[in-house]
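Let us work through a complete example step by step.
Step 1: write down the sequence.
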Amino acid sequence: MIDHVPREWAGLTAPAARYIATMLALNLVWEVAQLPLYTLWAEGTPGEIAFAVLHCTGGDAMIASAALAVAILLTRSWQWPSRGWERVTVATTLVGLGYTVFSEWLNVDLRQSWTYTAAMPRLPPWGTGLTPFLQWLLLPPLAMLTVRPPARPFAR
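Step 2: predict the structure and record it as tokens.
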């Protein structure tokens, strides 16, 4: 058991928890809203649909957590969010977006774990669905606003 947390990490816990909680709520709404763009919506039972929403939302929370951790490590922003908020926001968004593009390609094209309907716009070159792409482009910066440090007044 770790009995000492490095001083640099002490301020990370509460903001990270707030970010993850916000991402969990936003992703739950997003997952429900984009359901009609997946064949599960028309072919699945109510139980299968409910399980998929919960499963995907839980996966989104794990992606958000891992993306934040990787972003803090890559940017070496140990005092995030008070310092490095912008760098961590950009890096978190790019890591989550990169994972999503890979995961959608893997699960739609290779594993065929899920299928888009014809209504899902797909982005080249890998055919990633537009809504999962937008989900990870828009939601991380939006959730990061909940941990953004207050603006400092300009010094004269």
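Step 3: interpret the result. Residues 10-144 form one domain.
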